[in-house]
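anyone seen this seq b4? input:
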Amino acid sequence: MAGDTNTTEAFCYLCGESSHKVGKIAVAEGRIDGICRGCIERCRETFKRADYLPIDIRQAREADTDSVMDIDATVDTHLSTTMHRREVLDEIVLGRVYLLCRKDTGAACGYIMFEQKSSSHLYISGFAVHPSARGRGVGAQALKYVIDHFGRLARVDLLTHPENVRAIGLYVSMGFVAEGILPRPLALGAGPRVLMRYAGPRP
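predicted toks r here
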């Protein structure tokens, strides 16, 4: 059965290779099997690449609304929902939006949004990196920031599109596991989403 680590063969969700080293990350409609260690290590190797892009992370201000909107406009609308300006501004006022800024120029190259639902639960509600900065460790640095500050909570989770393979690979490499597929999350409109939870550093 897809996703069952008791079977003799499993297939990596990212590269498609068959390997007994694939770990179970979800069992839902057979959509996801797992991520092989090779793909996890390739995600981690981003930190060692010559084009690694160091960033600073700061809380967004109302004046940053246009920057967040510009970054949000670059996301693939098949894989993610975009936000209206009023929604972005409301999230900024509530202190939930953090800008990912290049250390060399200070320019915004991404954002991450999260909300503390309770004293034990943090939900990552939005995450985007500008195309010019993708694949350069920006997303990993943003997730590390969240994990460093909130990883001790009982639960840190997020939702992502089941076909967003790059994002899923990043999340798994940072210690997230998939708990299943939600067919139509109300907060995100139509379409399924993978529910992923931080489970600690990868071995």
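The chain has one domain: 51-198. The CA atoms of residues 4 and 37 lie 17 Å apart. kinda curious what u guys think
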